[in-house]
Every structure is written in C-alpha cells, then in structure tokens.
C-alpha cells in the first residue's frame, strides 16, 4: 500500500508578509499613479510574498504534463479514440504539440510523465515512464482508482515538484493529457461543489449536443455510484484520473517547497479544487491563468474564489493556457523591478504636489 506524499498532510508554508509589504510599498513610489497597472501590480506583490523577496522573478519556468488514460471511455464520452493519449505523448516528445511549441517559445523546461496508457509508449526523450496501470477503471461501475493507485499518482506529482525545486524553478505549470478526462473532472467537480452534471458537463474534445447529454448521463451514473462522501482522497480515488491526482500532488508539493503554481484550465483547476479541499493553505500559492471555454470551469473558479488573468476561449489543456499567461507574470515582475521611483527619476509625485499646494 502506497502512502500519500507528506505534502498531503503536513502544514504548508505561508507567504512572506514582510516581502509582500515591501513590494506593496515599492508600488506606491514608482512613476505611475497608484493602481494604474491593475492586476500586474497585484501579481508582483503576490509573487514577492511567495518568493520571499522584494523584487521577484518567475524564471526559470518548469512545465510538467501528466498523462493517463480513463476507463470511462468505455461509455463513449469522447469524440477522439483512446489511443490518442499515447500518440500525443509521442507528439509532446517530438515537439509538435501546442505546449511543446509554447515551452520552446518561453524557454521553459518541459517534461512529460506517463502514468499509464492503453496504447504502448516507447522510450522517448523528455518522457518519464511512471505507469501505475494501463488506465483507470470505469468510474460508472467502480472506483476509478484504488487508494494505492491514487496515492501513487499523488506521489508522482509531488516528485515532479521536487524535481522543479531541485532545478531552481520559480514557477510551475502543470498540464494534462488523457482522453476522457473532462468526464472525470466534471464528476469530481460535481461531487466537491454539490452541482448537477447538467451545469458542469461540456463538450470536451468536441462532442455535439447529443454527445454532451450522453456524457452528462454518464457522470450522473458515476455520482450515484459514488454517493455523498466528500473526503478529498476518497472523491479523488473514486472519480478522478491518474493525471488529475498527479496534478493535485504537484500543486501541494510545489506549495510545500515554496514554488508558485500557474494554474491552467478546467482539468487543472479541478485538481486545484481537490488540493484546496485537502489543504486550504495551498490556495495562496496558486495563480489562475485563464478561463476555459469548457462550461464547468466557471463554477470551479467560483469555488476557488479565483479570478483568472485571461479569457481567450481556450480549452486545449496540456498547460497551454497557463503557458500563454507567462509573459504577463514576467511583465509584472519587470515593471515592478525596473521602473524608476519618483525620487530616482526626479519626477514630482502626487504627495509632493499636494504638499506644495498646501504650503503658505
């Protein structure tokens, strides 16, 4: 029997309030009206507190894509066949996937972790073979994972966080790949948020209206089989996927090691929801990149009290939406670190102007 990684139960560190305060004070003396850079100012202050420095940076960036197959595909819930999961792992390694292109563009390190696919995956550069099983079980008839399998997937995610920390990474992005995983994620979200499948189930890989209706019925069957248990590990094992569990472990592991996480779309946000339900303090280590076009994402964001940076109609997964948001974080840090203060630039600030106007 595997045990959950330590980050699953041990207290997580808190952001450095002194560094956050220093950063907030610096924002007030830069050559701009206070608040005029909007969310970019708050990003810089948040990152300063998370890194424990007055002037933060998010580089180097680590992207880890977790892949795994889902037994619920037996129910015909995807527009793509299940062998696509293994084929996409090869595409990641070959540099042809969206996240591969974005990682190169961002000069971010990219690794892929294969947690178990129906199709065979050969030895490939940049792909870690950490197979737990050929895929999860069909969640409509039994638990998707045994407790041991869920713990193994959590541990794989925690290990990825450990590798990122060892490499000195200052920002982590987790991506997902797994045909059928929007069904699993929707079931998890319904169970944790007490929402109906009709409200959260979407087209995933491109289902039509009839396909979405069928997928919603499949999720309803899974929820009925699961019952009303809301313990995070129980829900995760019952309704989740290997890659979703690994993403959960990675977020908790990054927080435990002081690494901020830039959260991608629907699948990764559901993993974040599981992580926050288990360890509420992990929420402070999460920055939400974008609002997915997948219908259930908005409810998950609301459940996490999250305001994403972008809304581009994306729903690809792989960590692609988070990767697109990296330049915003870099810009926030550059502006915060390199802008001149009023005193440095010899520019009269608002307080000086008001003081002069009030002089006799």
Automatic annotation (TrEMBL):
User: Coiled-coil ranges per the record?
Assistant: none
Q: Compositional bias (Pro residues) spans?
A: 1-14
- What InterPro entries does this protein's entry cite? Nict_dMeBzImd_PRibTrfase, Nict_dMeBzImd_PRibTrfase_bact, Nict_dMeBzImd_PRibTrfase_N, Nict_dMeBzImd_PRibTrfase_sf
What is the enzyme's class at the highest EC level? transferase
Q: Where is this region: Disordered?
A: 1-26
| The keyword Transferase appears for this protein | yes
Q: Which reaction does it catalyse?
A: 5,6-dimethylbenzimidazole + nicotinate beta-D-ribonucleotide = alpha-ribazole 5'-phosphate + nicotinate + H(+)
Q: What is this enzyme's EC?
A: 2.4.2.21
* Keyword vocabulary terms for this entry: Cobalamin biosynthesis, Glycosyltransferase, Transferase
According to UniProt, this protein's pathway is: Nucleoside biosynthesis; alpha-ribazole biosynthesis; alpha-ribazole from 5,6-dimethylbenzimidazole: step 1/2
Which HAMAP family does the record associate with it?
A: CobT
Annotated function: Catalyzes the synthesis of alpha-ribazole-5'-phosphate from nicotinate mononucleotide (NAMN) and 5,6-dimethylbenzimidazole (DMB).
UniProt xrefs under NCBIfam families:
cobT_DBIPRT, PRK00105.1
Protein name listed in UniProt = Nicotinate-nucleotide--dimethylbenzimidazole phosphoribosyltransferase
Task: Identify the taxonomic lineage of the organism of origin.
Answer: Bacteria, Pseudomonadati, Pseudomonadota, Gammaproteobacteria, Pseudomonadales
């Amino acid at each position: 029997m595997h045990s959950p990684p330590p980050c699953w139960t041990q207290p997580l560190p808190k952001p450095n309030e002194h560094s956050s305060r220093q950063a907030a004070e610096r924002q007030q003396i830069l050559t701009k009206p206070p608040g005029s850079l909007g969310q970019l100012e708050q990003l810089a202050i948040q990152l300063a507190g998370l890194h424990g420095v007055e002037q933060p940076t998010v580089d180097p960036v680590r992207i880890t894509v977790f892949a795994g197959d889902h037994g619920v595909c037996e129910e015909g819930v995807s527009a793509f066949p299940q062998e696509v999961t293994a084929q996409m792992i090869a595409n990641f390694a070959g540099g042809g996937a969206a996240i591969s292109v974005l990682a190169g563009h961002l000069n971010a390190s990219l690794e892929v972790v294969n947690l178990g696919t129906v199709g065979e995956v050969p030895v490939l550069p940049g792909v870690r073979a950490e197979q737990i099983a050929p895929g999860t079980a069909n969640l409509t008839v039994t638990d998707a994972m045994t407790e041991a399998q869920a713990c193994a997937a959590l541990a794989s995610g925690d290990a990825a966080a450990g590798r990122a920390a060892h490499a000195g990474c200052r920002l982590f992005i987790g991506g997902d790949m797994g045909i059928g995983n929007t069904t699993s994620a929707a079931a998890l979200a319904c169970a944790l948020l007490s929402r109906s499948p009709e409200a959260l189930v979407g087209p995933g890989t491109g289902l039509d209206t009839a396909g979405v209706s069928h997928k919603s019925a499949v999720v309803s069957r899974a929820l009925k089989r699961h019952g009303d248990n809301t313990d995070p590990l129980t829900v995760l094992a019952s309704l989740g996927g290997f890659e979703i569990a690994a993403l959960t472990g990675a977020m908790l592991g990054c927080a435990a090691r002081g690494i901020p996480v830039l959260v991608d779309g629907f699948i990764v946000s559901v993993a974040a929801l599981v992580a926050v339900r288990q360890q509420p303090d992990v929420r402070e280590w999460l920055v939400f990149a974008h609002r997915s076009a997948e219908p259930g994402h908005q409810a998950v964001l609301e459940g996490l009290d999250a305001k994403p940076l972008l809304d581009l109609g994306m729903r690809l997964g792989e960590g692609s939406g988070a990767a697109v948001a990296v330049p915003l974080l870099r810009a926030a840090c550059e502006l915060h670190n390199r802008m001149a203060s009023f005193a440095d630039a010899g520019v009269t600030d608002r307080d000086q102007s008001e003081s002069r106007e009030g002089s006799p």
